[in-house]
Structures are given as structure tokens and as C-alpha cells.
């Protein structure tokens, strides 16, 4: 294994920071990090939030590359969407921000 450092683009950095800028999403990442992958219904029960709300938060986290999903069939034929935390590491520093800022898309 090499010690290469992946440099995030400015847009990727903003997406990750925006995805983590919510208490529900932080709790989702924490639950998946400590408990391993889980399917939506069980995760919603564990966190005490509705499945539709959980789906919205999971979509934002997945779009930012912080979680991944895999659809599987249970033994009784039900489709279960499992989510897991991706292997990410986010360390902020002024130098990282300066580098990332150079790659930002044109502001809207």
C-alpha cells in the first residue's frame, strides 16, 4: 500500500462538507461507522427518524461519496438497500483549502 494522498477538487470538498453539515447525517455516518453496514428500515429505527427523511440524508451522503449502497434480496424475497460508510479521510488545513479552491467550478 502506498502513502499517496488523494487531493480533493474544490467541488468535491464542498460536497463533502455540505453533506456533513447536518446533525442527522453526522449520526448516520456515526451509526454506520460503529455498527457496520445496515439496511434503511433498521437504520431508520435505530436513529429514530422516518425512512423518507433517512433516504434524503443518505442520498446526500452517497452523492458526496461518504456512503455507498447495495441492493440485496432477503431470504423472503424483499429488496433491502444496505448502506455502508466508504473509506474516506477528511483532514482540513489552510493549504488543502487553498489547493481545492483553485479547482472550484464557476460560482452560480
Describe this structure in words.
This protein has one domain: Orthogonal Bundle (Arc Repressor Mutant, subunit A). The chain has a three-stranded antiparallel beta sheet with strand order 1-3-2. The longest helix has 13 residues. It is α+β, with helices and mostly antiparallel strands.
SSE topology:
Layout: H1 10-20, H2 23-35, E1 38-39, H3 40-47, H4 51-63, E2 67-73, E3 79-85, H5 94-101
Antiparallel strand pairs: 1-3, 2-3
Q: Summarize this, please?
A:
It contains 5 helices and 3 strands. The protein is of the alpha+beta class. Strand 2 (67-73) and strand 3 (79-85) form a beta hairpin.
What is the tally of helical segments? Answer: 5
Assembly of the depicted chains: single chain
Approximate helicity band: 40-55%
Sheet with most strands: 3 strands, antiparallel
Q: Largest beta sheet: what is the strand line-up?
A: 1-3-2
Report the order of strands and helices: HHEHHEEH
- Mean pLDDT, all residues: 89
What is the CATH topology assignment?
Arc Repressor Mutant, subunit A
Beta-strand residue fraction: 5-15%
Output the CATH homologous superfamily: Winged helix-like DNA-binding domain superfamily/Winged helix DNA-binding domain
Structural class: alpha+beta
Protein name: Helix-turn-helix protein domain protein
Organism: Amantichitinum ursilacus
GO molecular function: DNA-binding transcription factor activity
InterPro entries: ArsR-like_HTH (IPR011991), HTH_ArsR_DNA-bd_dom (IPR001845), WH-like_DNA-bd_sf (IPR036388), WH_DNA-bd_sf (IPR036390)
Amino acid at each position: 500500500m502506498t502513502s499517496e494522498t488523494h487531493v480533493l477538487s474544490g467541488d468535491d470538498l464542498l460536497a463533502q462538507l455540505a453533506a456533513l453539515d447536518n446533525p442527522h447525517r453526522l449520526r448516520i455516518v456515526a451509526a454506520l461507522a460503529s455498527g457496520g453496514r445496515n439496511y434503511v428500515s433498521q437504520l431508520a429505527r435505530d436513529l429514530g427518524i422516518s425512512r423518507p427523511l433517512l433516504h434524503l440524508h443518505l442520498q446526500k451522503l452517497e452523492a458526496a461519496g461518504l456512503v455507498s449502497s447495495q441492493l440485496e434480496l432477503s431470504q423472503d424475497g424483499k429488496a433491502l438497500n444496505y448502506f455502508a460508510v466508504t473509506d474516506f479521510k477528511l483532514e482540513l488545513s489552510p493549504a488543502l483549502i487553498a489547493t481545492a479552491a483553485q479547482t472550484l467550478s464557476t460560482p452560480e
